[in-house]
Amino acid sequence: MESYNSFKVAQQQVLEAARILNLDEATVDLLIFPQREFKFTLNVKMDNGASRIFHGYRIQYNQARGPAKGGIRFHPEETVDTIRALASWMTWKTAVVDLPLGGGKGGVKCNPKELSISELERLSRAYVRAISPMIGIDKDVPAPDVYTNPQIMTWMMDEYETLVNRHHPGVMTDKPQQVGGTEGRRDATARGGVITVREACKLYGYDPHRCYAIQGFGNAGQRAALLHQEILGGGKLVAVSDSRGAIFNRDGMDPKELVTHKLTNGTVANFPGGKPLPQEELLELDVEVLYPAALENSITSENAGKIKARVICELANGPTTPEADFILNKNNVHVIPDILASAGGVTVSYFEMVQDHYSYFWEENLVHERLDKKLTKAYKTVQEAVKEKQIHPRLAAMVVGVARVAEACKLRGWV
Ligand code: GLU
């Protein structure tokens, strides 16, 4: 029976990597659980004057390599286990790209689509009041994730600065540039993913100029639509989906027009340049590159066998279940796993922290260049582990990440 509990999936992935690395029992026990978990309630005044209680979380999974780092989600389906899984993945993600950071994640169970702007602001500020003792540039640095954005980061930073009574822009990343943000952060997750696709094409001969499809059209999906063509010099975008629908056009669609349609209408559905497509069929299209950029557990044992994409670039966190991984691997689909493919975002978050620290900001080209170097190197390191240990790419990425974290824990004398 296939498991959809993301935390169990994450634990299983750590255990597999630990087996390859021959880690001792204490190290394994340390790495399969978060180091610290915070669970709290938030009371927020709604616009109608009534109070409402929300459930919030912040989890610092592992801080052996540096301060905890990872996003905050506002999502109606949020659970403590989802946050645990996401915090675990952040730990291996920062290690795979060799950043001096640990992993963490936070969330609030809520539906931001049903909140007014001022309710959203009060919720964001309440969240920071709850976690303020455990965050800071040298402790734990949140960023956006699903349904959170730079405006929310700005309210959160502002609330924190009010509490500590000084400037501290590095407490949050992916802020607007006027308040301590960096060039290049908004498209960094997608840019990093497309860079790994470029490397896969170079190394294994995939054709970036054939067609591609994107599941999920939030920040990462929208930017990937544009950057695939910009960085790879071509390719037809044949299908796109979001939570409300999917559209398809075999001759390709204009990414810019699609983004404009999404921003105007809140969905890609009814885009005049394409025909409606059942959402689940998007994953099964015959494309060169498939970008899952939505939520966890989209690719399962039910649909993995029907996937015809040659490359899967996982911009979402945890889109593929272990059973599906097994099938994709057997069918020779080249999976660029989430902890590598989506690491561009946190890489530029790290650059933002560095710039905030020095209060001196880099030009856009420098951010792109340094991001490219980090992701290219990480992609190559993971491919070397694939060859050397004869393992599939997700396991290889986990082996690289887990080994680095285990080493830091050992050096510190924790195990
Ligand atoms: N939420 C993003 C991720 O899952 C970015 C995290 C960050 O920049 O800290 O990688």
Explain the overall architecture:
The chain has helices at residues 6-21, 25-31, 80-96, 117-131, 150-164, 188-204, 219-232, 255-265, 279-282, 322-330, 338-341, 344-358, 364-389, 393-411; strands at 36-45, 51-62, 68-75, 103-109, 140-144, 211-215, 236-242, 245-253, 275-276, 289-292, 311-313, 334-336. Helix content is 46%, strand content 18%. The two termini are 34 Å apart. The model has no long low-confidence stretch (mean pLDDT 97). By secondary structure, it is α/β, with parallel strands linked by helices. The chain has a 7-stranded mixed beta sheet with strand order 9-8-7-6-10-11-12, sandwiched between helices. Helix 7 (219-232) links the parallel strand 6 (211-215) and strand 7 (236-242). The protein has 14 helices and 12 strands. It has 2 domains: 34-179, Leucine Dehydrogenase, chain A, domain 1 (Rossmann fold, 3-Layer(aba) Sandwich); 188-341, NAD(P)-binding Rossmann-like Domain (Rossmann fold, 3-Layer(aba) Sandwich), CATH 3.40.50.720. The structure holds glutamic acid (GLU). The site of glutamic acid has 11 residues, from strand 3 and helix 12.
